[in-house]
Amino acid sequence: MFSPWYSLPFTLFTLFFLSIHAQTLIHGTCKVCSQQDPTVNYQFCTTSLEAASGSRHANVRGLGKISLRLTHMNVSDTRSHVKNLLKKKGSSSQKMRLDDCFELYSNAVTDIKHAMKSYKSKHYDEAIVLICSVMDAATTCENGFKEKRNVVSSLTKRNNATFELCGIELSIIHILRFGLFTVTFKRASSGHLCISVRKSDDQGKMHIKSVSLLKTPLVESWIAPLKSSI
After folding, report:
1. Which of 21, 79, 178, 215 is 20 to 30 Å apart from 207, CA to CA?
2. Backbone phi, psi, residue 20, to 5°
3. 1-33 pLDDT tens trace
4. Alpha carbon of 213 to those of 47, 109, 230: distances in Å?
5. What is the crossing angle of helices 156-178 and 124-146, to 10°?
6. In Å, how far are 79, 92, 99, 157, 165 from 85, measured between CA atoms?
7. Which pLDDT tens digit goes with each residue over 42-61?
8. Which residue, 103, 102, 91, 105, is CA-closest to 151?
9. Global pTM value
10. Would you call 25 exposed, middle or buried from its count of C-beta atoms within 10 A (0-12, 13-18, 19+)?
11. How many CB atoms lie within 10 A of CB 173?
């Protein structure tokens, strides 16, 4: 039987390892999301996912589920916030924009719920359409305030958060559908050209396949465009 003095350090080491793995997966996923979609802020992505419950043990698919949950919370809270703003006194122009936003976010709540179901059942095409609809709602809400002079949006931060969370979800769906590829080229002393292809799965694990080709002008001409596109 293990002594508690031995089991405690082992437990702490295990928790430390799991924490490092989770942080690495979140940061790696957010890096790809920000590269795929310039509107996604890397810092916003990592901060949002790391603060969410369940992210420590989540795989890539789980991070997508978490981002959808965060979006649902955000659009639901924004809808309630707009409802409270409408109860306060304000200009007719301000009220008109808030009325539009209330309707947009009411529809967004329904859309994100359906998107969560589609994502769960892996109907990604349906999820993408619904997520894009939520993004459009946030954009339309924000742009509505810009159509009238002297009308300042009080929802900019919330609209931006909705838009970026949706961007994260779309990027994660892209990862789940097509994976992440890393291609490495090395020249061996034998004159062969070695190509290693690393593909990640939704667990964040890398699967490596290698092939060795004889270095010839024909092979070089085939590899050159591929190397320049990576």
Report:
1. 215
2. -65, -40
3. 434 433 434 333 333 333 434 567 888 888 888
4. 44, 53, 19
5. 160
6. 10, 13, 10, 15, 24
7. 999 999 999 998 888 888 89
8. 91
9. 0.70
10. buried
11. 19
